[in-house]
Structure to design on (448 residues):
């Protein structure tokens, strides 16, 4: 499995595999026995507060392992969901996606058979992976230089920080003597190596361990001779598929409902790369009709300025997040931008309920519009039958009597599942609760 992770997560970095396994590599803190040298290096970079102002923000500030590698600040998750940058008055436009399992996304491409885009990282797929052979490695290069995130002035500033760090020797043991070169001629190559190292860490068993209760059920189910489809869709008797009673009756019923109404996008019935358990995403893009999050701080960024004097968000409250359709005009696929407006990457449902504490609120969807799994499931179930609110209705009405209109009301997914369209699944409260119960079995860290 480790070799598959390495190939998938590193792309071009696999050409340097011999360097990754350099004997005797030492980090600033003891080497984790589960990590290779390059993965340990990526971990050092991921948790190091490389930012301006100094030591104010790391990648882990928005991707906390104890919260499923997403943000773990309760008040921020409950209101707005978008996280502050190192300059605390600056905000970006979307909630942090999970870092876990992101390394298994393929290089961004157009599926010529379906006409759909697949792969990449970030919510809009813009970290394509085409250049480095790894979307995750390319994604990791962005936040350090983003003025609304870690706000470092340039690649050389990042490089100089790493060159002075306690893990600088580990960098050279992984990439070779003299590889930590911050000169004008070599800094681009050095910076790419930072991204490849963090991509390796995110592909590691520490970040993407496949250690949930579902994973235990999946292995037991397959070991009993059942098919992947039967196990992932709960297509059969519980006594046959789950003879050890890993799932409660409610959780097993939730897997049945999930298989019928959710697994087409959050794939639960096909093994992942290298024979891993399912990824719970098809790595494609959809507009499911998510409304605006009125508390998104990005709408106020017309009054907050970058160092060059330009506002972060010149459109203010009129800004519309076009997702994939906003990224495509910058690519060779510009002619397909209109038909992809409002679409966002299908996230994995792994760790959707993993929290630092029982009461920690979490935010869901690309803009954090929803704040509970119950709300998310109810939205998918009733999006169309309860869509009668005005655009300014606040959350107190959401999921109770009505849903606001979608932020982008075109290119909506109206696919049929079991003969029923998304947004009108006709599930009763018991079925909704069962789906939520099943989703809670996807949290990593389960022990028998």
């Amino acid at each position: 499995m480790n070799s598959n992770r390495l190939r998938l997560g590193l792309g071009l970095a696999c050409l340097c595999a011999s360097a990754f396994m350099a004997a005797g590599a030492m980090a600033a803190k003891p080497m984790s026995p589960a990590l290779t040298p390059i993965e340990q290096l990526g971990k050092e970079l991921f948790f190091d507060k490389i930012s301006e102002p100094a030591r104010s923000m790391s990648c882990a500030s928005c991707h906390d392992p104890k919260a499923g590698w997403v943000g773990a600040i309760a008040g921020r998750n409950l209101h707005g969901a978008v996280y502050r940058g190192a300059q605390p008055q600056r905000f970006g436009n979307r909630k942090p996606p999970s870092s876990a399992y992101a390394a298994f996304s393929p290089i961004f491409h157009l599926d010529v058979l379906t006409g759909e885009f697949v792969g990449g990282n970030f919510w809009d797929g813009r970290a394509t992976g085409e250049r480095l052979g790894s979307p995750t490695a390319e994604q990791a290069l962005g936040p350090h230089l983003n003025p609304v995130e870690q706000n470092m002035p340039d690649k050389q500033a990042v490089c100089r920080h790493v060159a002075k760090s306690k893990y600088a020797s580990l960098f050279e043991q992984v990439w070779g003597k003299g590889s930590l070169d911050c000169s004008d001629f070599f800094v681009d190559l050095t910076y790419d190596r930072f991204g490849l190292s963090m991509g390796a860490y995110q592909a590691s068993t520490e970040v993407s361990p496949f250690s949930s209760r579902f994973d235990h059920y999946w292995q037991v189910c397959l070991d009993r001779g059942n098919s992947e489809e039967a196990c992932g869709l709960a297509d059969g008797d519980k006594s046959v598929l789950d003879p050890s009673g890993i799932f409660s009756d409610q959780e097993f019923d939730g897997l049945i409902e999930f298989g019928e109404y959710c697994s087409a996008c959050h794939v639960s019935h096909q093994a992942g790369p290298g024979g891993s358990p399912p990824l719970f995403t098809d790595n494609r893009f959809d507009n499911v009709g998510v409304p605006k999050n009125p508390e998104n701080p990005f709408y106020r960024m017309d009054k907050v300025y970058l160092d060059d004097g330009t506002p972060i968000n010149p459109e203010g409250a009129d800004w519309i997040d076009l997702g994939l359709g906003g990224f495509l005009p910058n690519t060779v696929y510009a002619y397909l931008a209109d038909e992809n407006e409002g679409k966002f990457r299908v996230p994995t449902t792994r760790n959707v309920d993993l929290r630092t504490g029982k009461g920690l609120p979490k935010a869901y969807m690309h803009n954090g519009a929803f704040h509970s799994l119950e709300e998310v499931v109810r939205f998918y179930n009733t999006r169309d039958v309860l869509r009668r609110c005005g655009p300014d209705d606040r959350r107190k009405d959401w999921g109770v009597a009505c849903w606001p209109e979608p932020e982008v009301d075109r290119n909506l997914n109206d696919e049929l599942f079991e003969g029923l369209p998304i947004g009108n699944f006709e599930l009763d409260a018991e079925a909704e609760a069962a789906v939520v119960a099943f989703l809670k079995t996807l949290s990593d860290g389960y022990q028998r």
